[in-house]
Amino acid sequence: MESPNPQQVNSMGDQSPLSPNLHPLSPSPSAAAAAAATPTPAAAAASTRSSRSKKPPHSSDPNQSKKPRLTLTVPGRPLSADGEVAAAIQHLRAADPALATVIDAHDPPAFQCPHRPFHSLVRSILYQQLAFKAAASVYSRFLSLLGGEHNVLPEAVLALTTQDLRQIGVSPRKASYLHDLARKYASGILSDAAVVNMDDRSLAAMLTMVKGIGAWSVHMFMIFSLNRPDVLPAADLGVRKGVQHLYGLDAVPRPSQMEKLCEQWRPYRSVGAWYMWRLIESKAPPPPPAIPVGPPALTEHGDELMLQQQQHQQQQQQSVIQMIDPLQMLPGMG
pLDDT tens, 138-164? Predict the structure, then answer.
């Protein structure tokens, strides 16, 4: 994906309507207070018995002890807000001395999003599985087809046929992804306002219902479009290899190990992940030297050997680019 950045990130800092201290399934504070203030005789007796017993009191709900309460992460201040990146760096530097050395070696990130959420999601779909230059070319033709960035709207995308999109280099499969996203917006299943204010878990569930949008794309979108501060793309190879280098691990950590390894980065795991991409970028081998202009005449065998070497170098470069794609493809990366 590209650096996800659709909605206007500065306007994405609206607080979620859900209070971070009150689970939506919990009883209201007034109801809970009323129940506590008027105990029944049976409850009073139970309280007396429990004070004499070392056993923990039983809940009136037999399922309460069996089902852990869900913990939702609601949107906080976006990383594009004034002072938020500085606060993140201060926390990460103090929490993880190993990461502090990486922070010192790089300029701080700048998270900004020039596009609305729908626009950013469209852009990420167009960029999928393409080299950066090829994707940028397709995206430019897509904007021309619509008449400019201001026309990247659900109804405008739905008005484009698969053949229209194919003529600018969009495959039929990607065209179906774009149409599915636009239909979900047009029907009200998704909206920019809902996307901005949804908690992380709900947003991931809703976006992965769209064809062509998987967990990695959602994480990139949350970090670089919504600028959410505490997103850990645990399956991203670049972040995992960065963690391996950071802590001197013998092997690349599995996605299931990443939560524990990066726990100390909370609540700024998005910024920690950003530095992992930078770390891997710095470890990448330098590009091969340019081929001199006007080389000496070569035999047919020499030409073939040089071509093989060039192809091998290009393959090596492409493998590196694929690992650091988030740095190139997502529009808000600084």
Answer: 999 999 999 999 999 999 999 999 999
Q: Looking at the chain, how many residues does it have? A: 334
Other Cβ atoms closer than 10 A to 246: 19
In a domain, 49, yes or no: no
Residue 225 near residue 232 (C-beta atoms within 8 A): no
Positions marked active-site: 236
Query: Cα separation of 153 and 185, whole Å?
Result: 9
Single residue among 201, 226, 251 that ends a domain in this structure: 226
> Are 125 and 104 contained in the same domain?
no
In a domain, 332, yes or no: no
Specify whether 91 is located in the same domain as 179: no
Instruction: Tell me if 266 sits within 8 A of 299, measured CB to CB.
Output: no
Cβ atoms within 10 Å, residue 156: 14
- Is residue 328 within 8 A of residue 321, CB to CB? The reply is yes
For residues 280 and 242, the answer to whether their CB atoms sit within 8 Å is: yes
User: Does the global pTM surpass 0.70?
Assistant: no
Give the H/E segment covering residue 32.
Answer: helix 29-37
In contact, 15 and 75? CB cutoff 8 Å: yes
CATH of the domain at 179: 1.10.340.30
Do residues 148 and 191 share a domain? yes
Give the pLDDT band (50/70/90) at residue 55: very low
Kindly state the tokens that stand for 97: 């001395």
Query: Are 79 and 229 spatial neighbours (Cβ–Cβ below 8 Å)?
Result: yes
**Inter-helix orientation angle 200-207/215-224, to 10°:** 130
pLDDT tens track for 108-129: 999 998 899 999 999 999 999 9
Give the list of residues 6+ apart from residue 181 with CB closer than 8 angstroms, or none.
118, 121, 122, 125, 154, 157, 190, 210, 211, 212, 213
In terms of residue numbers, what domain contains 91? 74-112+229-284+314-324
Closest alpha carbon to 290 in 270, 310, 274, 275: 310
